[in-house]
């Protein structure tokens, strides 16, 4: 009960603090309804997010069918060592980084350009129309997007593919990543521009007037008014996206994969799926997944650190 | 461009009182305008064309599609593909499954997310800080594919329709968006008034907060619904019975299927292949249309939803 006495000395209320039990009772009496409202959320997240985290110890243990989620005999870093020395290690890392880094860079630049362009449209109706149109691909499923890629790149009838050559462009390992990047930009560019358009709508109109008085043309307005306005948003989004350097959407890569492009398309998540789940190497798959998560988490912490430093220094 | 810039800047100081001055455009601005409109038009074309092509290809003569003659308008109208699509029971089964999973799933999503977000939006509710930290943490750190699989196995969710609905009951991202909405868009005065009227938290949430939240319900409801509708991963990983597979898995099977084997009615190989191609186009349209029809009606809410999410994210 020493806790309650320290609470008493630092407490800001005039009434003496009762014991922890009594305070808990009072808390629940006052807030039990909020606990009821939040309980399903906590329950679902606890079961479907934290129990699998508990299961991560399988990465350090041998899998035994009876033992279930937490595995059997402790084997230390055996499975991590197995991955680091596997021939596929470098290949999967390089492929993952190539696919995700290009997506990150192109997916960063194009929405900004699109937002700046859409912002130039004077008519509200046209603006809304262009926005509706460019959001559209965001709602299409990955299965359909990949089938569109196949249709357009097909060597005999595809509207792009037939000019390229006799084999499908998707079979070419060198083209796998660019096709992935471009299709990502196609699908999400309009949607990701929303945030910049929202930022642009907050530009002080008098800034435009002042710039025009100084003789600024359209391009100068974009360069010296619009771009600085969205710059903070750009920086934050870029840094936040850095946290996903080692993660790519499993579904899309998996659906775009074929035996021909495998040297460029085997990424960490598809490798985990094939070896871990299809190959029943549960411990090995868990270890690879954990390694991937840890690297991403490290990047995120680094990005957060840079972000907090940057926002401190960028305050005027 | 530098010429025109000079011409504007020399004119500007001479007639600052002229109210038409502001509308005046230099040559550079005209050129800029044309370039901007050209790029926007090109972007719209690039975005819309792939879908347009699938639409026209789905109703065209497949010999002409295969020859590459079909580019802008349908040629040789032919609805055989759609007839096959509508006659195919596995597509309907998948369609029905997806509707069931999407409707039940979204209903559960909203029933769990909205009350949770409301509770977490109450500033006087002290434990919310710890809860929010624990919830946000799961966005960046997760057990991964195999622990999830083993958990679902233990829970009996493998090859069970509830695997589409229960594990994704809460998306922390949507929860945070909804919480921010409750914090910023519902005036605190309402809560004070409700307390004076003797409303409990639950009464306040259902009678006052929810009726004022149609914008956020529409936005996160659509996010959740789209997520369920387009879900391919869950069916691929956790479900083995064909009867339980959602539309996306059925779609992928049809897209990948050996052309000769799927539809046995066609008379010869080429016609067989043409029909298979047309079925592909048709099934893409049939599976995608519902979302493309719904979302423009909800578009006015998007900017708000994305903005709230971005501010808090």
From TrEMBL, chain A:
Alphabetized Pfam families for the sequence: BPD_transp_1
Annotated membrane topology: Multi-pass membrane protein
Assigned keywords, A-Z: Cell membrane, Membrane, Transmembrane, Transmembrane helix, Transport
Highest taxon of source: Bacteria
Annotated TM spans: 32-51, 97-118, 139-165, 185-208, 229-250, 282-307
Major localisation: membrane
Keyword Methyltransferase: no
Official protein name in the record: Sugar ABC transporter permease
Organism: Bifidobacterium miconis
UniProt subcellular location: Cell membrane
Lineage start: Bacteria, Bacillati, Actinomycetota, Actinomycetes, Bifidobacteriales
From TrEMBL, chain B:
UniProt subcellular location: Cell membrane
Keywords: Cell membrane, Membrane, Transmembrane, Transmembrane helix, Transport
Topological type in the membrane: Multi-pass membrane protein
Entries under InterPro entries matching the protein: MetI-like (IPR000515)
Signal peptide residue numbers: none
Spans through the membrane: 34-55, 99-120, 132-150, 162-182, 202-226, 279-298
Pfam annotation, one family: BPD_transp_1
Domain ABC transmembrane type-1 residue range list: 95-302
Annotated family: Belongs to the binding-protein-dependent transport system permease family.
Protein name: Carbohydrate ABC transporter permease
Gene source species: Bifidobacterium miconis
Organism lineage: Bacteria, Bacillati, Actinomycetota, Actinomycetes, Bifidobacteriales
């Amino acid at each position: 009960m020493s806790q309650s006495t320290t609470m008493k000395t630092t407490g800001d209320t005039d009434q003496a603090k009762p014991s922890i039990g009594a305070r808990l009772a009072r808390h629940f009496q006052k807030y039990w309804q909020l606990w009821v409202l939040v309980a399903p959320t906590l329950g679902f997240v606890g079961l479907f997010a934290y129990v699998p985290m508990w299961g991560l110890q399988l990465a350090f243990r041998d899998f035994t069918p009876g033992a279930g989620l937490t595995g059997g005999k402790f084997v230390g870093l055996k499975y991590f060592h197995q991955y680091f020395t596997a021939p596929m290690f470098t290949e999967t890392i390089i492929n993952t980084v190539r696919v995700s880094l290009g997506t990150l860079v192109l997916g960063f630049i194009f929405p900004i350009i699109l937002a700046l362009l859409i912002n130039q449209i004077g008519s509200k109706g046209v603006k809304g129309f262009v926005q509706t149109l460019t959001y559209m691909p965001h709602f299409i499923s990955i299965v359909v997007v990949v089938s569109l890629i196949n249709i357009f790149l097909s060597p005999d009838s595809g509207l792009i593919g037939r000019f390229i050559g006799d084999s499908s462009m998707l079979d070419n390992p060198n083209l796998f990543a660019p096709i992935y990047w471009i299709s990502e930009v196609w699908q999400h560019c309009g949607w990701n521009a929303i945030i910049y358009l929202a930022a642009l709508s907050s530009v002080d109109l008098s800034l435009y007037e002042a710039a025009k008085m100084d003789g600024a043309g359209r391009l100068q307005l974009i360069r010296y008014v619009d771009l600085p306005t969205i710059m903070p948003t750009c920086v934050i989004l870029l840094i936040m996206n850095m946290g996903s350097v080692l993660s790519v959407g499993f579904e899309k890569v998996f659906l775009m994969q074929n035996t021909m492009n495998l040297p460029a398309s085997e990424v960490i998540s598809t490798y985990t799926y094939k070896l871990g789940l299809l190959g029943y190497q549960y411990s090995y798959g868990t270890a690879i997944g954990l390694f991937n998560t840890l690297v991403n988490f490290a990047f995120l912490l680094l990005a957060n650190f840079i972000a907090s430093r940057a926002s401190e220094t960028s305050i005027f | 461009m530098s010429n025109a810039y000079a011409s504007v800047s020399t004119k500007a100081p001479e007639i600052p009182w002229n109210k038409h001055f502001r509308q005046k455009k230099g040559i550079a601005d005209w050129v800029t305008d044309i370039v901007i409109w050209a790029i926007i038009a090109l972007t719209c074309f690039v975005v819309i064309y792939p879908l347009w092509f699938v639409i026209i290809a789905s109703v065209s003569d497949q010999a002409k599609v295969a020859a590459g003659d079909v580019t802008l308008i349908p040629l040789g109208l032919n609805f055989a593909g759609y007839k096959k699509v509508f006659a195919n029971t596995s597509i309907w089964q998948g369609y029905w499954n997806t509707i069931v999973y999407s409707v039940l799933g979204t209903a559960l999503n909203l029933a769990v997310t909205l009350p949770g977000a409301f509770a977490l939006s109450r500033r006087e509710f002290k434990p919310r800080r710890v809860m929010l930290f624990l919830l946000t943490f799961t966005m960046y750190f997760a057990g991964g594919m195999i622990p999830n699989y083993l958990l679902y196995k233990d829970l009996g969710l493998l090859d069970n329709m509830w695997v589409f609905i229960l594990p994704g009951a809460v998306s922390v991202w949507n929860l945070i968006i909804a919480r921010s909405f409750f914090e910023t868009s519902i005036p605190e005065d309402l809560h004070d008034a409700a307390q004076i009227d003797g409303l409990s938290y639950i009464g306040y949430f259902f009678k006052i907060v929810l009726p004022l939240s149609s914008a956020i319900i529409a936005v996160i409801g659509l996010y959740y619904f789209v997520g369920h509708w387009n879900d391919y991963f869950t069916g691929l990983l956790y479900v083995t019975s064909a009867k339980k597979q959602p539309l996306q898995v059925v779609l992928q099977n049809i897209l990948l299927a050996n052309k000769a084997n799927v539809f046995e009615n066609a008379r010869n190989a080429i016609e067989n292949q043409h029909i298979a191609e047309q079925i592909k186009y048709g099934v893409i349209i049939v599976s995608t249309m519902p979302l493309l029809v719904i979302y423009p009606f909800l578009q006015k809410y998007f900017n708000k939803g994305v903005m709230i999410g971005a501010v808090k994210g």
